[in-house]
Write a structure and sequence with these properties.
This protein is an all-alpha fold and 462 residues long. It has 18 helices and no strands. It has one domain. Pfam families: DUF418 (PF04235).
């Protein structure tokens, strides 16, 4: 979420005065703004599932209020499920994290270049403490799926000491962080333990079929496995209906109380597990920025080969994973754990880099310039748009008069996505005609630099 800072169009640091202040428009890296806008809009493609309905597993349309894989829309929903996982799931969030990591290098380089000295660390710390606070406000008062808290926490604890680390070392740390992320998911969901228990239970079942005697320990294995299966069983339709009605009918402060309970309680431990999920792409962003990858400095062939290689890895993993998880419309949690969760970090990072390369190709070719300008405007006001998106979706599904939560088909949720995108794209462009920053960007920067920043566009020397 860090905004891009001082650099020329060739990626070199621009000459700057000794005062410490936010970047002017002339100093911004448009390619990073375009990427940030693209990622922010793309994140909603996946988050809309949580905004608009209950679900048994994250971003997998089983256990929803309307059965996605039955009825006349089953094939349409399945196709959308594939598209989401091929190009959006994890990849947009990872792209956002990557740009956040790049922002760490941009911010600190610029502050040090302008003679901030020891103040650079203070600026960096204040910036990310404010981000943590905004994340808590967002997660408790608006929507429980916040990611800002995790960004701020990772930045405060881990990223600053690595700001001058070489790309080669950073890439090695990316590999380590990615493995840690996979391990954290495995540990949190007990995947290896459940897979082992499944095999043991299957062996006992085979013995039973062959009318062989079953020991007490084998009976305990069967009982333990049945307990795991029951814990992951989809809710009965009546229970799903009750969950939907509760979400739609509860008052705002009831929702706040529930989110506060969940955010500070059980889900806070999950944020610890999520730290490697943010760390790996953030470190990758720090490396790729230094290599010139994110500023469109590399050759067109480099981006083409990067896209081809990334998709060659991620696409087969997703196709096989979704096929095994779907399993002809019958949800079984272990299929998801084994075929989507375990290879998740590999497919999301390679797919994200491939998607980034595609955007870089379009930028280098000068394609869709008007769309690029619209995306850049969203990217420059990303913090405001992130929270605005949550407010709009909560209003549409829960707070407002329509209360559409749990009433739309899986594919129909995309209509809301398109409507929110239209608001993001239109308001961002209009706002930046008159103002330097989005409203929340202004608050963030003013708190970071300890002084109210000039807001009107004409006050920006760039």
């Amino acid at each position: 979420m860090m905004n891009s800072t001082a650099a020329t169009s060739h990626g070199c640091l621009a000459p700057s005065p000794t005062t410490v202040a936010p970047a002017t428009r002339a100093e911004r890296l448009s390619s990073i703004d375009v990427l940030r806008g693209f990622a922010l809009l793309g994140i909603l493609v996946m988050n809309i599932d949580s905004f608009g309905d209950v679900q048994a597993m994250h971003d997998i349309p089983f256990g929803t209020s309307l059965d996605a894989f039955a009825g006349p829309y089953a094939h349409l929903n399945l196709a959308l499920f594939y598209i989401k996982w091929l190009f959006f799931e994890g990849k947009m969030r990872a792209m956002f994290s990557m740009l956040f990591g790049a922002g760490v290098v941009l911010l600190t380089r610029r502050a040090e270049k302008r003679g901030a000295g020891d103040m650079a660390a203070d600026i960096y710390t204040r910036r990310n403490m404010v981000l943590v606070l905004l994340g808590l406000i967002h997660g408790c008062l608006i929507w429980g799926g916040d990611i800002l808290f995790d960004y701020g926490l990772v930045a405060l604890l881990l990223l600053y000491p690595l700001r001058r680390t070489s790309p080669r070392v950073l890439l090695a740390l990316v590999a380590i962080s990615s493995l840690l992320s996979t391990f954290s998911y495995e540990s949190y969901f007990h995947i290896a333990q459940n897979m082992s228990l499944s095999r043991q239970a299957a062996a006992v079942a085979t013995k039973e079929q062959q009318h062989q005697p079953i020991s007490a320990s084998e009976r305990s294995v069967q009982k333990a496995w049945q307990g795991v299966v029951d814990a992951h069983r989809l809710q009965p339709r009546e229970e799903i209906k009750k969950s939907v009605e509760k979400e739609r009918e509860q008052g705002y402060w009831e929702g706040v109380d529930e989110r506060l309970d969940r955010y500070i309680g059980t889900s806070l431990s999950f944020h610890v597990y999520l730290m490697p999920d943010v760390l790996a792409p953030a470190l990758l962003g720090m490396a790729l920025f230094q290599l010139g990858f994110l500023t469109a400095e590399l050759s067109l062939a480099t981006y083409v080969w990067t896209a081809v290689t990334g998709f060659a890895i991620s696409v087969p993993l997703v196709i096989v994973g979704v096929y095994r998880t779907y399993a002809h419309g019958h949800f079984f949690f272990l299929n998801n754990d084994e075929w989507l969760t375990l290879p998740y970090d590999l497919q999301r990072l390679t797919g994200m880099v491939a998607m980034t390369a595609v955007v870089m190709i379009l930028i280098k070719r000068g394609a869709f310039r008007r769309i690029q300008r619209l995306l850049a405007a969203v990217g420059k006001t990303a913090l405001t748009n992130y929270l605005l998106t949550s407010v709009l979706c909560q209003f549409v599904f829960v707070w407002g008069p329509w209360k559409w939560f749990g009433t739309l088909q899986y594919y129909q949720l995309m209509y809301v996505v398109f409507a929110v995108w239209a608001v993001n794209l239109t308001l961002s462009s209009l706002w930046l005609r008159y103002f330097r920053f989005g409203p929340l960007e202004w608050v963030w920067r003013s708190a970071t630099y300890g002084t109210l920043q000039p807001m009107l566009a004409r006050s920006d020397a760039g």
